[in-house]
Amino acid sequence: MPQILTRHMIETAYKYSRKVYHNELELSSALSHISLLSGMHRGTALAYISDFCSMMEGQAFKRKMTADATKYYLLNIYKDYGIEALNGAVAAVKLHIKYFKEEKSLNLVRLTMVVKEFDKGLVNNEIVIEE
């Protein structure tokens, strides 16, 4: 049975994803911290770190991330890195959705809704959506 992800797990994974991305912490240490502090499985933590790095580079990612986690990541990328980084991250999520549709014949409906929310919520280079 898949693990139910809590807000605490998502927040912890985001925090340590940033540290890995900025070479402040080795990946293996980050995985241990995330697992120890939040209870998130190491494999899931690895996927979330990898997805964060892909978002920051504006590249497609192939491991699934929940819609709630994606929204949290996008909001915090905007808060931490600004509008350009957010635009790249949203583009990465769109590529992720396209990959799953074309390669796996899956429509990621909730994730598509998150992307649409960000597309509509961008006003004068600021996000005006609810957390």
Distance between the termini: 28 Å
Biggest sheet: strands side by side, in what order?
1-2
The description of the largest β-sheet is: 2 strands, antiparallel
Number of domains: 1
Q: Report the order of strands and helices.
A: HHHHHHEE
Inertia-based shape: globular
Helix content: over 70%
Secondary-structure-based class equals: mainly alpha
On the 0-100 scale, what is the average pLDDT?
91
Strand content: under 5%
Give me the Rg, rounded: 14 Å
Spans of at least 5 consecutive residues with low confidence = none
How many individual helices? 6
Report the count of strand segments. 2
Describe it for me?
With 131 residues, the protein is mainly α. The chain has one domain. It is 71% helix and 3% strand. It has six helices and two strands; from the N terminus they run H-H-H-H-H-H-E-E. Strands 1-2 form a two-stranded antiparallel sheet. A hairpin with a 2-residue loop joins strand 1 and strand 2. Helix 3 packs across helix 5 (83-104). The radius of gyration is 14 Å and the shape is globular. The relative contact order is 0.12.
Topology:
Layout: H1 7-21, H2 27-38, H3 42-57, H4 67-81, H5 83-104, H6 109-121, E1 122-123, E2 126-127
Antiparallel strand pairs: 1-2
Helix pairs in contact: 1-2, 1-3, 2-3, 3-5, 4-5, 4-6, 5-6
